[in-house]
Automatic annotation (TrEMBL):
InterPro entries: Cystatin_dom (IPR000010), Cystatin_sf (IPR046350). Residues 1-20 form the signal peptide. GO terms for molecular function: cysteine-type endopeptidase inhibitor activity. This is Cystatin domain-containing protein. Residues 21-152 form the Cystatin domain. Keywords: Protease inhibitor, Signal, Thiol protease inhibitor.
Amino acid sequence: MKAILVVAFIVSCATITVNASMVGGFKDQDASAPEYHDHAWKAVKGINDQASNNGPYYFVPIKVRDLSLEKMCLKKKPVVKAQTQVVAGINTKLEVLVGESSCKKGEMQVHELTASNCQAKEGGNRAIYQVTIWEKPWENFEQFTVEKVRDVSADEQI
């Protein structure tokens, strides 16, 4: 009888551990949420400051085609993956698909780039960047960390 209770206890603890998310860890979020799209555009400065974008054109967040059976449509979703973590503030980790734009460096400042005035260039270079934003809104604090994940070919489906 004791052995059955011990086994039942171990199984229930294992089930709880597997199904529970790690306290303090990153949690997956809906990458299509508008706030993550806004964060992607805020991160443009950091992405363009990277040595890996040494070309003459700015990189901007670009749209991703969703070819799932349920939704055969073009989504306005430059964010491929979104996660958040509650710390002393909020850490938001995004994977952002960016592409070479038609906006030349030197002709406009990076803080002037918007979705309406700077479009992705057809056939331009593309890449995925990981952007981590640490925010403490009560202190008006925002810090971006940007790291290139990989280049993306023009014909690659994301």
